[in-house]
Amino acid sequence: MTHATADAPLWDRSAAELAAGIRAKSFSATEVAEAFLARIEATNPALNALVDVRPEEALAQAAAADAAVAAGGDLPPLLGVPVSTKINTSQRGYASSHGVPAWAGAVAQQDAVCIAALRRAGATLMGRSNSPAFAVRWFTANDLHGKTLNPWHPGHTPGGSSGGAAAAVAAGMTPISQGNDIGGSIRFPAYCCGAVGLRPTMGLVSGTEPRGAVEFDSPLSFQTMAVHGPLGWTVDDVRLGLHAMVTPDLTDPVGLAARPPLGEPRRVKVAVVRDAEAAKSHPAVNAAVDDAARWLSEAGHEVEEVELPLLGEAARLWSLLLYQELKTMMSEIDQFGDDGVRVSLASSFAAAAEIWGGQPTLTDYIRGYARRGTLISRLQQFLGQDRIVLTPVAAEPPFEQDADLAGDTRVSELLAAQWPMQAVPVLGFPAVSVPTGLRDGLPSGVQLIGGRFQEDLLLHVATAIEARAPRTRPTLSWTRTG
Fold first, then answer.
1. Signed CA dihedral, 303, 307, 309, 312: sign only
2. Which of 161, 206, 319, 348 is catalytic?
3. Contact predicate 183/423, CB 8 Å
4. 459 alpha-carbon distance from chain centroid
5. Alpha helical stretches, state H, 48-133
6. How far, in Å, CA of 381 to CA of 375, rounded?
7. Given 3-state DSSP classes, what are the helix, strand and coil percentages for the chain, each rounded to the nearest 5?
8. What is the pLDDT of residue 265?
């Protein structure tokens, strides 16, 4: 892996390096904020990753961080470290627009719990990251803020729904971005942009939002599958972001009463799962899995290929439970959404109908949730305390831009390819997307799945891949050549 050197520009340094340097007074939080604001100014016009950047507010936060350093005493872990937040998560003084023009004025009066946690950790909140309307596409575009481009290639998606967050991290606009994930919305954008993305265990990071101008009752699948988590350029960035965001909160329907112990670093058994009887992988995807498996073996982990069809079954359940509940929200989506989300969902519903029929029954739905509990137990038993699972992130390389608008046949292929993204939310386990380098000019990567509350163990294993994978920043050369 290519690491930033001591003379690297501040925007190309890790969150840990920045936090340590600010504490040691090697440079100030203001200098860090100025460096990242300059980087945003240089790269964001081409990418449209961040959609509401207020330099004066960022500099005021940085000045407060410098004052805290001068005063001495205990300092929070992310003091002065730039972090972006997503447009569907409440941050006081900013619109929780969800990419919907009608909600452009829905300014939050309070922070969501996870944003408040980042603020307490000392982060400099640098701007809002773009996402698709209602955050239900694997592509990032909406009528309010426009389209976000992949910093490696404008013809391929940056992922979604946290596509702006991932593009910002990859381009060096922030070392850490906050995102959320119900069907791959952290892990898939990280994969598409060559970053690291962690979906935590369900309930570890609070999903509680303040009461505000935009409020609706979340379907059960949102309550049991949607999580907030960090994206970062390095595994250490993600670890720091996670530890800052862990928020015990009993106002969250699935929240925890106390901060649980996270898994200790150690050697593990690695179960390699290629397709889970769901979709065969593209050769470039298989090559990434091969690389990661070899690197983990070299690092001393015990690696074996296994069949684990329960993951494929969980992915199919996702297409039943989530899409049936999304149908109950279609009146709001039809009223406030854009053509992209409406067309994408129509094709997604058609793809799900190929699996479950055009009109799944209430019995199908009830049995689906019952089966979910059985699969959770089986996967936890399989993992135990000393096993993780290595899978593709998706069965295809990063999709062509707006592939979900290309018709039902292509969307059916996308749905099948995303089985590793879908299986994890249904079961509530943690998973991390970690890069393995470039193939044909596009990022490649793998997913690691661990037992519940084993995030630190997962990240420890991910470092073995990161240490061996070739890494470089995107040059954005296409922005100069057109």
1. positive
2. 161
3. no
4. 14
5. 55-71, 113-120
6. 10
7. 45, 15, 40
8. 83
- Which residue's structure tokens are 């481009």? 149
Tens-place pLDDT, residues 352-379: 999 999 899 999 999 999 999 999 999 9
Tokens of 338: 């854009």
Structure tokens given for 465: 């891949």
Instruction: Pick out the chain residues at pLDDT < 50.
Output: 2, 482
Q: Are 397 and 282 in contact (CB under 8 A)?
A: yes
**Is 161 considered catalytic here?**
yes
Residue 143 is classified by DSSP as T
Residue 171, SS3 per DSSP: helix
Collapsing DSSP to helix, strand or coil, 346 comes out as helix
Question: CA-CA distances (angstroms) from residue 122 to 14, 172, 262?
Answer: 16, 19, 22
- Computed from CA positions of residues 7, 166, 58, 180, in that sequence, does the dihedral angle turn out positive or negative? negative
Identify whether the C-beta of residue 144 lies closer than 8 Å to the C-beta of residue 96.
no
Minimal CA–CA distance to 171: which of 297, 45, 23? Answer: 45
Residue-level pLDDT at 482: 45
| Whether 99 contacts 333, CB under 8 Å | no
Can you give the three-state secondary structure of 145-176, one letter per residue? CEECCCCCCCCECCCCCCHHHHHHHHHCCCCE
147 is catalytic: no
Of 28, 97, 162, 185, catalytic:
185
Quick: pLDDT tens for 241-257: 999 999 999 999 999 99
Q: Which two tokens stand for residue 235?
A: 């595994």
Name beta bridge partners: 95: 107
Q: Cis peptide before 84, with omega less than 30 degrees from 0?
A: no
Let me know: does 15 contact 244? Beta carbons within 8 Å: no
Contact in structure between 37 and 55 (CB atoms under 8 Å): yes
Strand partners, 390: 272, 448
Determine contact, residues 96/216, Cβ cutoff 8 Å: no
CA distance 139 to 79: 32
Active-site residue, selected from the candidate residues 28, 84, 86, 433: 86
